[in-house]
Amino acid sequence: MSVGIEAIEYYLPERFxxxxxxxxxxxxxxQFVEEKIGVKRIYIAGENEKTSDMAVAAIxxxxxxxxxxxxxxxxxxxxxxxxxxxxxxxxxxxxxxxxLGMDIACFxxxxxxSGFVYGLSVVKAFMEENEMEYGILVTAETYSKIINExxxxxxxxxxxxAAATLIGREPYLTPLKFTFGTNGNSYESLxxxxxxxxxxxxxxxxxxxxxxxxxxxxxxxxxxxLGINEIDYFVFHQASNFMVDTISKKLGLSxxxxxxxxxxxxxxxxxxxxxxxxxxxxxxxxHKNQKILISGFGVGxxxxxxxxxx
Amino acid sequence: xxxxIYQKLExxxxxxxxxxxxxxxxxxxxxxxxxxxxxTISFFFEVESAFGIKISEKDIMENSLLNIERLIEFINxxxxxx
Lengths: 310, 82
Description:
- The complex is a heterodimer of chains A (310) and B (82).
- Chain A has 310 residues and is α/β, with parallel strands linked by helices.
- Chain A is 33% helix and 25% strand.
- Chain A has helices at residues 19-26, 30-37, 51-65, 90-98, 115-129, 202-223, 241-250, 263-266, 273-282, and strands at 4-11, 15-18, 41-44, 73-79, 105-109, 134-141, 161-168, 174-182, 190-192, 198-200, 233-236, 291-298, 302-309.
- In chain A, the strands form four sheets. A five-stranded mixed sheet of chain A has the order 1-7-6-4-5, with helices on both faces. In chain A, strands 8-13-12-11 form a four-stranded mixed sheet, with helices on both faces. Chain A has a two-stranded antiparallel ribbon with strand order 2-3.
- In chain A, a hairpin with a 5-residue loop joins strand 9 (190-192) and strand 10.
- In chain A, helix 1 (19-26) crosses helix 2.
- The longest helix of chain A is centred in the last third of the chain and has 22 residues, at 202-223.
- Chain A is globular, with a radius of gyration of 18 Å.
- Chain B has 82 residues and is mainly alpha-helical.
- Chain B is built from four helices and no strands.
- The model of chain B has no long low-confidence stretch (mean pLDDT 91).
- Classes of the chains: A alpha/beta (310), B mainly alpha (82).
- Chains A and B meet through helix 2 and helix 6 of A and helix 2 of B.
């Protein structure tokens, strides 16, 4: 059996800020925050809540849904850029906090918004190579801890969250071929210098999203031998409404109902935005024999796409 | 050349803001055309792509390029210096 996604659960911290608070703090129109950025609330991890705590909370929800797999997990990969410690890797803390056995592979993946798609490929290949039955890819970020509260470029956008994706051999979503890319020349477009806060060059990121990402998507359609009209849903990283609209426009898909948007409910949750978006779109209807494009892009600059087949 | 630049700018603006019927040279992108900060990013990206030039934040600030007339002059100079 091919290896793919069997289940996804996510965790959001209790604390949040509303679009009204964001608009008032930064002197934005409410309409700009809710419609252009697309955010109605962003989530903020508790003062003592670490990335590993959020990862564990998401995995616990997965175990509640699938109690049969707790003792069968053979690999946990944590994708994060806000680890609890510079070292050791956060996945080791996750293993400890969950009380899992020592016969388990744990490693971190240090990617941002492209991390879910990369992670999916990495964990899938790792499991296939090592003949494993079950693995978990956790995406978890606490960007609120590295953001300047007064930075109007980043604060109204980023949101803390974790998503746990169960990867196994009876998937309801099977990845087809992947595309990957990197432009290290633009590494300063989104950067956390030490000591400092997260910096984002809005124009640099926009140029990336308007040029490289649509090219990558076309390449993804091509290598999977699928036309754009054969895709049932497009799940782009929920960077902002504006960015999702920009990609849609560049692909000739403006206002297309197949474009999934859920940033209003969650904010930009970095590497968790795609798995969370998948859960929201698959909640409500039957999805047999469908093709779902997923594409992550961001810090690096880094990007990756694939098509999930139901 | 300035006329061609003006026409291209008008086309870009009309695509972004279909409600704009005519682009006046004295217009300011923010105050008269109501472009917000994200629209402005998108506008300058389209301008850079259309004319094959780079316009930095510093250029925008130092040359008051939110004004259409100033922007036309700047693009004209930039194209002629290539």
